[in-house]
């Protein structure tokens, strides 16, 4: 699914989610600069904050996605297209809204404990 795509992962991302990326052909980068996708599980984490404060982010050249996308997508019975936009992780100052990843995460906890 992610063959040849390059992903950067915040230190806030669980290792099992990074493993999903790698097992589906994705490449993990240590730097966000050449990544196709940026994943974080915590908008307030210092490494994610660096991205929000970067010129690339301010100029709308990069987007940070919530890493729960990988878990949700891997658990789907059919690999249909899922709207990645529902998993955009905005800076903490914008967290007053409702985001799908919050609902999905709570639902998974209820289902799987």
Average residue-wise pLDDT: 85
Order of helices and strands: EHEEHHEHH
Shape: globular
Oligomer: single chain
Low-confidence blocks of residues: none
Rg over C-alpha atoms, rounded to the nearest angstrom? 14 Å
Structural class: alpha/beta
Order of strands, main sheet, comes to: 2-1-3-4
Tally of helical runs: 5
Work out the helicity level. 25-40%
The largest pleated sheet is described as: 4 strands, parallel
Distance between the termini: 27 Å
User: What percentage of amino acids are in beta strands?
Assistant: 5-15%
The total beta strand count reads: 4
Pfam families: TERB2
InterPro entries: TERB2
Essential attributes:
113 residues; alpha/beta; four-stranded parallel β-sheet; 5 helices; 4 strands; 36% helix; globular
What does this structure look like?
The chain is an alpha/beta fold and 113 residues long. Helices cover 36% and strands 12% of the residues. It is built from five helices and four strands, in the order E-H-E-E-H-H-E-H-H. It has a four-stranded parallel sheet.
Task: Please write out the topology.
Layout: E1 6-9, H1 15-23, E2 27-29, E3 37-40, H2 46-52, H3 55-58, E4 64-66, H4 68-75, H5 100-112
Parallel strand pairs: 1-2, 1-3, 3-4
Helix pairs in contact: 1-4
InterPro entries: TERB2
GO cellular component, one term: nuclear inner membrane
